[in-house]
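ingest -> validate -> predict -> emit
validate: passed (alphabet ok, no gaps, 324 aa)
predict: started
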Amino acid sequence: MRSSMPTVRDVAARAGVSVATVSYVLNGRGETRARPETRDRVLAAAAELGYTPSFSARGLRRGRTEQVYVVPRWPGSPFAAALARDLSDVGERHGYSTAMFVKGDWLAHLSRRVADGAAIDLWHRRTQPDLSALVEMGLALLVFGNGIEPDGFDVVRSNEQEACEAAVRHLVAAGHTRIACLCRQPYEEEDGYLPIRFEAFANVVGSYDPSLVTHTHGSWERGYEVTLKLLSRPDRPTALFALSDSAGVAAYWAAQRLGLRVPDDVAIIGVGGVHDRANVPVTFVEPDRMDFAEESVRLFDRLADPGPGQVIFQNWSLVHRGTA
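emit:
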């Protein structure tokens, strides 16, 4: 009785070609090994039979998992979503799947050789993990973090903190003395240190009113609620510095709800700049580009040619859109 799952031999028989030809075409190498009409015939046969290549089996033959991981600081953040999207797009062209590590000991997990590479967000960690064991295992790594040296892996650095400080100085120069800060989490949940975005705020304003520092817990709804409360106070702040995309947008709509003029009654600056700029014209501290296609390509280049590693710089700046 014939198996219900078509095999590469079934595709070869249907297309009238050899198994090797099918393998070259379905592995993405058919453009150099097969004529266009042969490639089309193989693809048509595979589609008719419903054949899907077994990447796991192919990976075992090659001694690879054919999977890469995204290890974000906040799995639900726009940063994590953009990185996963671009890494997945590039990975698909190489026959790779992309997974996101959500919770737990990511270093121990990767040490089990569950992937061939990983993009790791270390932006907001002061204590940097030892990645040498992963490098020695042959994992291709793309690490996001300042102060990290590219020792067998590539590093993405940025001037995010400096750009945030420039944004807060802009508010101070405009005459704002009561500046509220919308943080993602209470500080004690940030591994016992001040996140770099809040550190930028504190560095510029110096002493601040603790009651003007609120926490959104990464929720748009929570950001909207706390902003409504802040702006409804008799001694309300005249400026808001929101440390995330969602908080910046939530602050804008909360001000609109209260009938406040932005920036005349309250100035708003957010950090991130990923949200729809056409519908929500918030002034943001943001990267020049919020895509990681170039970095993703670099990660897969390392799979073919590891090399010593290099530094990739990501520039952030204050982009004015009329809210500050």
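DSSP finds 13 helices and twelve strands in the chain.
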